[in-house]
Amino acid sequence: MTYGFGMNDSTLVQNIGEYIAAGDTKAALRVIGREFHSRRWSLGTSSNYSVITHRNPIELLITASGKDKSSLTENDFVTVDAAGNLLDTEQAAGKKSSAETLLHCLIAECITDAGAILHTHSVWGTILSRNLLEPDQAFGVLGIEGYEMLKGLEGVQTHDTMIEVPVFQNSQDMAELSERIRDVLEPSSVTYSKRPPVHGFLLAGHGLYTWGKSLAEARRHIEIFEFLFEVTVQQKLLSLCP
């Protein structure tokens, strides 16, 4: 099967929709990788993408670690359980999931209607997230308001609103980082009850995590967030001009 590689962006987007409609999850994720790489959101071997294939118990199909997202193949995916463990080590054939798989598992657990989770490393998200936190600051919030594009986030009905994007200090200790994120995302947490709905979060100097009920919705949220991050930085730069 041909996956549309080498085609322009509009054709890639069309192919994503076709593969999602056909239920070909791997093909859709491959094309998303190609698109995100071309838009400089998933350079090198950065980023990881997952789809929740089962809910009880939780199982995810996720990109394998260390794969170039511009050239994902049918074999560049693994399946994991709710703890991030490989479900079929023989089929994995030496491939492993990223350490950040634990964050995908956490999101799948806390956001009970999530169907897909996407993670990118864009320039704008990296700059904004790093600028928002002091080195000794564990948590912060990026507020974005007044943009028409906010309506691209699920449930937002008007530009006249403000969203809050949690920003967490990055860590290589995924278990510790997961617990900090859990305090914000888990419905039973104190923090959760005091904030508006969250559509995604940033890791400082690292990148964006967002999700959606479907892969198409998660992809749209990436596109909306990346637009909002860029205009936020550009607006800050304009404010410095005399």
| Secondary-structure class | alpha+beta
Shape: globular
Q: Widest sheet: strand order?
A: 3-2-1-4-8-7-6-5
Q: If helices are DSSP runs of H or I spanning 4 or more residues, what is the number of helices?
A: 8
* Number of extended strands: 8
Could you characterize what this model shows?
Helix content is 38%, strand content 20%. With 242 residues, it is α+β, with helices and mostly antiparallel strands. The protein has an eight-stranded mixed beta sheet, sandwiched between helices. A hairpin with a 2-residue loop joins strand 1 and strand 2. It is globular. The termini are far apart. The relative contact order is 0.13.
Keywords:
242 residues; 38% helix; globular; eight-stranded mixed β-sheet; alpha+beta; 8 helices
Write the topology of this structure:
Blueprint: H1 9-22, H2 25-38, E1 48-55, E2 58-63, E3 77-81, H3 89-92, H4 101-110, E4 116-120, H5 123-132, E5 139-145, E6 162-168, H6 174-185, H7 190-193, E7 200-203, E8 207-212, H8 215-239
Parallel strand pairs: 6-7
Antiparallel strand pairs: 1-2, 1-4, 2-3, 4-8, 5-6, 7-8
Helix pairs in contact: 1-2, 4-6, 5-8
